[in-house]
Write a structure and sequence with these properties.
Blueprint lengths: L21 H12 L7 H11 L5 H11 L5 E8 L2 H8 L12 E9 L1 H6 L21 H10 L14
Antiparallel strand pairs: 1-2
Helix pairs in contact: 1-2, 2-3
């Protein structure tokens, strides 16, 4: 029997983003970047337009980040609570004085290979500071602490790949 992959509740094949193969991505990526080493929303849209009109934006974004030689983290953030607050909220009979709406937290973090090699990471569920890196903002010190937590761990020197 032919396996058609994941299925939804009705038993029909689930529509999921198809991965973009790296070998097929290369020409469209080079053309879309125009020699720029930075990944922009326009670059991702250009890759879709030039070579993968049926691909999802997210699948194309993941493929582009994997291709970058510099450390990159894909980060999704949403309002969420600390683990202990979630636990208290889920405990039957526990009455919270004033349930808070949550704080902006990193709920999904995906490093590209260069970030993995360098040990660059952000822990899942870490609170995202309100304004990242603005020294005029009162929580600039907190941002520096946030960056300090995500700095590379001491490791063996990184071997440079051919570029």
């Amino acid at each position: 029997m032919l396996d058609l992959g994941p299925r939804n509740e009705e038993g029909n094949p689930r529509a999921e983003p198809l991965p973009v193969h790296p070998a097929l991505l290369a020409p469209a990526f080079v053309q879309a970047t125009g020699g720029n080493r930075l990944l922009t929303f326009g670059t991702v849209e250009g890759v879709i337009e030039r070579g993968f009109p049926a691909a999802s934006y997210q699948a194309t974004l993941f493929a582009c980040t994997r291709r970058l030689p510099t450390p990159v983290l894909y980060l999704e953030a949403t309002l969420a609570h600390k683990k202990d607050v979630k636990r208290r909220m889920a405990t039957p009979g526990m009455i919270l004085d004033d349930p808070q709406p949550g704080e902006l937290r990193a709920v999904k973090v995906i490093p590209n290979p260069a970030a993995q090699e360098d040990g660059f990471f952000i822990p899942t569920n870490m609170r995202v500071p309100p304004r990242l890196g603005d020294p005029r903002h009162e929580q600039h010190e907190e941002m520096l602490e946030w960056r300090g937590r995500s700095t590379p761990k001491p490791s063996t020197p990184r071997r440079r790949r051919g570029r």
